[in-house]
User: What shape does this take?
Amino acid sequence: MLWHRAWEPHISSRFDTGAARASTIRPMSIIGAAVGIGAQDTRCRQGPDRLQACGLMARLADEPHGVSWGGTVREDTGVDVVYASARFCERLARKVYDALQDNPRIGVVGGDHSCAIGTWSGVHQAIAGSGPLGLIWIDAHMDSHTPDTSPSGALHGMPLACLLGHGPGALTGLGVSGPKLAPQHVCLIGVRSFEPAEAALLQKLGVRVFDMDQVRRHGLARVMDDALAYVQKNTAGFGISIDLDAIDPHDAPGVGSPVSAGICGKDLAESLSKMGRHPGLLGLEIAEFNPDKDVNNRTAKLVIDLLAATVGLRG
Ligand SMILES: [Mn+2]
Assistant: This one.
């Protein structure tokens, strides 16, 4: 693909210098990922526009350290979902990569969770040469199906497997060929609904899973601390991908596939405000917001709160 060549000359050394990481909370470029074709219910594609209408940037503009809107990437329609998704993810990856040339970190608001393939392929490329990418995946599901194991065939059930190098070649080979994540640099938090084939793949690869039971037993703060230590080890930086269905449906009703008994929204905001001060944080993604299922904009407000907490605005 042509744009591989354009990506390569820009490898920056700022990711591995301590001086560049001195400030506590750093600027973020926020990008909309208006994609819905990765799910059977495609209405998550309206997520980014609804967040804007609910005052996303108006709220974050108060942030003193510089939050900017990087624009929205919109999906193509086409008969072949994998092809259309690959085209979308390719454009998103490119936008994320470009944003990381001018900003130390990015935020992505979805969209169904298939956008993660684009987001983290772009971040991976931006730090290529500095070291591997760590990723905390907060989700009620494992998102680790392949086309062979998925009962629904929906791509939003496959993004983590794709990033680990398992899935359709058009999606695993974005940017550069090969896996964008190594299993030892990834962990999941909040899992409580999955199929045996996904669990088997993650177990075979050796991916760390902190399930919802562990979150309940130890508290989210402690699990996040463990996850942070894990994704920092031998990496050039780390990201956080949040599927809103990880959160309890009472706090986040407007999601694609709700699962009961999840993470408390307030606890997650608390943890993200701590993560936001970490110099190694390269990006935050929040996916699966379905505005049509929201109740009194509760989910939209929570998404804005989570981003605000990460960039240093509380309450
Ligand atoms: Mn997900």
Summary: Residues 1-23 have pLDDT under 50 and may be disordered. The pocket of manganese (II) ion is lined by residues 113, 139, 141, 143, 243 (CB under 6 Å).
